[in-house]
What we know:
Elements: H1 3-12, H2 14-25, E1 39-44, E2 50-56, E3 64-70, H3 78-89, E4 93-97, H4 108-117, H5 120-136, E5 140-150, H6 152-163, E6 169-173, H7 181-185, E7 191-196, H8 204-216, E8 221-226, H9 244-261
Parallel strand pairs: 3-4, 3-5, 5-6, 6-7, 7-8
Antiparallel strand pairs: 1-2, 2-4
Helix pairs in contact: 2-4, 5-6
Amino acid sequence: MRRRDLVALTLAVLTAACAPEQTRTESVAPERAPASSGSAVAFPSTLGGNASGYLYAPQTSVRKPAVILVPEWWGVNEWIHEQADLYAKQGYVTLVADLYRGKVAKTMEEAHELSRALPEDRANADVKAAFSYLSSRNDVDPARIAVLGWCLGGGYALSLATAEPRLAAAVVNYGRLVTDPASVAAIHAPLLGNFGAADRGIPPDDVHAFETAMKNAGKEADIRIFDHAGHAFMNPSNKEGYDAKAAAAAQERIDGFFAEKLRAKIPNS
């Protein structure tokens, strides 16, 4: 089987990884305090037409590192905007990839419907287009672009790592993994992964298999499985599954990883 087909097969089961755990932990996405929405942007997709997203760009006179954020199955909700604002305040040019192109789920049923209807090839192309868009900006250092995704978005973040050799770093938070040799061999970026021991969508055995495949291929991967944490443990909107201690530790790992891999002594404006 060709690598392209293997990646497509992997993406075909992305929603299976997210939906069961979300069903158990939260049926409605609760209201959150409004956050800055950034600037809506559109950029050409490799499949034709325009991809879309939200750009958080710190004012700068120099090229800075950048981060692509790929949301959970809810879409670009307030929590994702909060995450984007967080990274922008750290000095990264931050782009949220809006895979649903303007639609946001408010209930589990809506999230399930949107994720199941999402064309996998289009979503993959949109994340790739986000990388191309950032690399073309005069405020971004194209050699220091990373991707970060959660759940559904974690799988697409990993997919970008298999498709884009120029990627500087990748973070997968409880996203669907790959173990086939062709896909693993295509990963060039150093990778950080955060997973939950109680996650029934991405079980520890799958995480260990991925870690072993990466190690056997000589790839750089820093993987941690948090004891007792379940799926979506980083999102405080996940009332039954949120683990504040694990979330803080995972965030600290991400911040340190980006600081190292993106050489993020952020230059002043």
